[in-house]
Amino acid sequence: MWNLAIRELKSLFLSPVAHVVTAIFMLILSWFFINIIALYVILSLQAIRAPFIAERLNMQDIVVQPFFGNISVILLFIIPMITMRAFAEEKRVGTFELIYTSPINTWSIVFGKFLGISLFVLFLILISAVFMIPLFSYGEPDKGVVLSAYIGLILMALAFVAAGVFASSITENQIISIIVAFGILLLFWVLGWVRGTLEGTLRDVLAYLSFMDHFQNFSRGVIDTRDFVYYFSFTGILLYLTYSVLESRRWRGAY
Question: What's the pLDDT at 147?
Answer without folding.
Answer: 93
